Amino acid sequence: MAEIDARLREDVHLLGELLGETFRAERGADFLAKIERIRKGAKAARRGSLAGAQQLAETLDALAEDELLPVARAFNQFLNLANIAEQYHRIRRRRPAEPLPFEERVLGEVLERLQAAGHSSQGLAQQIAGLDIELVLTAHPTEVARRTLIKKYDDIAACLAARDHADLSVKEKAQTLRELRRLLAEVWHTEEIRRSKPTPVDEAKWGFAVIEHSLWSALPGFLRGVDELLHGCCGTRLPLEAAPVRFASWMGGDRDGNPNVTAQVTAEVLLLARRIAAELHLRDVERLITDLSMHQASPALRERVGEAPEPYRALLRQLRTRLFATRDWAAAALQDGQAPGAAVLQDNRELLEPLLLCYDSLVACGLGTIADGPLLDSLRRAHTFGLFLVRLDIRQDAGRHAAALDEITAYLGVGRYAEWDETQRLDFLQRELDNPRPLLPAHYRPSADTAEVLATCRVAAQAPAAALGSYVISMAGAPSDVLAVELLLKEAGLQRPLRVVPLFETLDDLEHAGSVIDRLLGVPGYRARQAGPQEVMIGYSDSAKDAGTLAAAWAQYRAQEALVDVCQRHGVELLLFHGRGGTVGRGGGPAHVAIRSQPPGSVAGRFRVTEQGEMIRFKFGLPGVAEQNLSLYLAAVLEATLLPPPAPTAEWRALMERLAADGVAAYRAVVREHPQFVAYFRQATPEQELGRLPLGSRPARRRSGGVESLRAIPWIFAWTQTRLMLPAWLGWEAALGQAAERGETRLLHEMREHWPFFRTRIDMLEMVLAKADAGIARLYDERLVEENLRPLGQQLRDLLSQASDAVLRLTGQAQLLGSDPVLRESISVRDAYLDPLHLLQVELLARSRRLAEHAESPLEQALLVSVAGIAAGLRNTG
Question: Is 570 part of the annotated catalytic residue set?
Fold first, then answer.
C-alpha cells in the first residue's frame, strides 16, 4: 500500500513541478517564488506555526491588484491536478504484489458472500441479468469547469497512464514529459471559467460528452468484467440482451423553477440525443465493416444478403446507410423540424436485428472468438444506449400543473380548481380522464404559463416511448398531483403509458408519502393506466434544507418503509427513485454504502438515482473509473436485493425518533427561528455572489424570499465555501448530546455496530466534520460580517465543535477519521492549496461588496476561480 501511495505522491509532485515551470515561463521567477511562499506559509500555518501564518498573510496582503486572479488560478489548478492524479490513481497499473482496489474486488466478493448464503449460481446469474439500475444524469450549478478543460484534464490522465510502466525507454519518458508540459501550458493559458451562463442545451451537450468520451467505452468493458466473473463463479454467461445498468437524463427536461427549460428546449435536446446516438453507432458499424471480412455465413444471413462474397459487410453497409439517414435527419430536424423519412431508424429493434444476425451467424460458423470481439461491444451498447442515447425525464412543479388546471376550469365555467379540496379535484380529474372527448376546444388561447405546460405535454406525447423516462412532479403532496399530469398528457394526445412520478421533498411530504400512494393506488382506473412499477421519487436536498440531515434521513427511511408496505398490500411493484445530490448535505456520499443501508425490501432488483454535475465527472469522467463505479452500483444493488440489512429493532426506532425530533428542533431553532440568521448567512457566505456567477442555467432561487426560497444546491454550496458546512451537521450536535445526557450511549454504540443505516449516517457526518474548519469560517466573519452579527457566528462554530466531540465520543477515536488515515491524509494534503484560496476569497468578497459594478472585471473572475477551486478541493462536500 505504501508503494502505491508513493506513486500517487510522485504524480502529484510531478504535475505541481510542471505547472510551476509554466508559471515561471509566463510570469517569471518572482511570481513562482510568491506562489511557493504562499503554499509553504499555508502548510506551516496548518501545523501551528505563527511565523508560517504571518508569512502567508503578509504575502497575500502584498499582492498587487493584477496578481489576484493569477494567484487564484494557480491554486485552483493545483487542486484540479491533485484530483486528476487521485482519480487516475484508482485505475493505475497494479504490480503483482499490489492489492486490487476495493472497486475492482467488490463484485466478486459479493458473489462469494451470496453463494455462501445459499444462493445458487443459476439464480445469481438470472438476478444480475434482470437488474434494473438507472443512473439519471443531471446538470449542476456548481460544475463550473468548461468542457474544453475537462478534455485536457482527461488527456493529462492519459499521460499519467503512459508513464505508468517500469520499462519505458528514455525516448518514451521524454515524450510523455513533453506532452504533459504542453497540456499544462494549454490548461494555464485557457480561461477555466465560462464568461456566460450555460443554456440548458449546453448542459445537455456536457452530459452527452461524458457518454461519448467515457461511458460509451466503459459500459461494454464493465459488462465484459461481469460476464467473466459470472463465468468464473457461476459457470454461465451474461445474456446478450442484458442491460443491468442504463442511463437517463434531466438535462433539458428539468424545468422545475428554471424558466430557461422550455418545450422547445426539450424537443431540441431529444433530437440532439438522437443525432449523437446515430454518430456513435456509426463509428461502431464502420469498424465492424472493416473487421468482419470473413465469408462463412449462416443460412439466415445468406437469405438476407444473397451470395455476396463478404456477407457481414453487405449487411452492415445497409445498417450504415440507415444510420447516416438517421443522423442527417436529426441534424436537419434541429434546424427545420422536418419529419423523418422511411430510411430513418425509429425502433431499437431495427438497430439490434442486423447486429444480432451477424453475431448468431459467426457463432453458428464456429467463429465465436470473432463474435465476442467489438461486435459484442456494439451489441451491448445498442441494448443499453439504443437510438436515443439516454431516456429524458421531464420535471415540473406541482403548482404549475394546478395553476394550469385552475385557468382551464375557470375558462370552462366549472369552478376554480385551485379552490377545490382533494375529493373535488379527484372527482373532476377521474371524470375527465375517463371521458373520450377533448377537455379544451381548438380555439382556446391559454396564458403564457399554461401554454408552456401544455406545449411540454405535447412534446412528451409526440416523442417515441423509448426516448422518455418519467414525468417527475416536484413538491407533490396529494394523489391529484399525479392525476393532474395524466389529464394534461391525455389532452396533449398521449396514447401510451408514461410513468408519472410524485417527488416527496419536504419533511411533511415524506411523512405522508405512504398514505398518498395508498390513496392513489386505490383511485378507480389508475392502475389500469400504469405500465410497469409504481415509481416514487424521494427528495434528499429539500428535505435536508427543511429539517436538517438527521431528521430528513430518518424521514426518508420511514417513507421508504411505508411505500414498500403500501405497494405490497396493493400487489404493485415499487421503483424508488433517489434524488441524491453529490454533497453529504444533499444525500451524497459513497453510493454502494448508501444502497446497502436502505430499508429491507426497498431495493428489489430495481434502483434509480440521480448523478449530478461535478460528481458525474469524478465518477464517470474516465472509462476506467466509470467501470469501477458501475461495478459498485451493481454489487450494492445485488447485495441489497438478496441480502438486505436487518430491520431496526423497536428500541433503535424509538431512539431514532428522539434523535430526529431533537435534531429538527435544534436545526430549525437556528435556521428558521433565529432573528439574525438570514442576515448573517448573507454576509458570512458568498450566497449573494453565487446568484450572479455564471454557474448553471437555473436561477439560484425558485422565487424571491429568504432561506426557504433558496435552492438546496446554493444553500449548501455557500456554507461549503466558508468551511462551516452547516447544512450537513446542524442538529446532530444537539441530538447526540441529549442522547448521551439521557444515558443512551450504549444504545448508540449498538446501532452504529449493527445497523448499516445509522453507521452510514455517522460515517458521512464524520467525513464532513473532518473537512469543516472553524478557523477558516472565523476569517469570513472577521472580514465580512457586521459586529452585531458575529456572536451568532461564534455560536455556530461552538455547535460545530460540539458535533465533532459527539462523533468522537461515539467512535471512540482521538481524532476525526482516525480509522481512515488515507482519507484524512487526502483532506490534509489539500489544505495547503485550499487555505490561500479561502483567504483570497475573503478579500475578494470584501472588495466586491465595496464596488457597485464589477461584472466581467478581473475581480469577479478571480472570485469565481476561488469558488471553483474550493469546490474542487472539497470534492463531495463542494
Answer: no
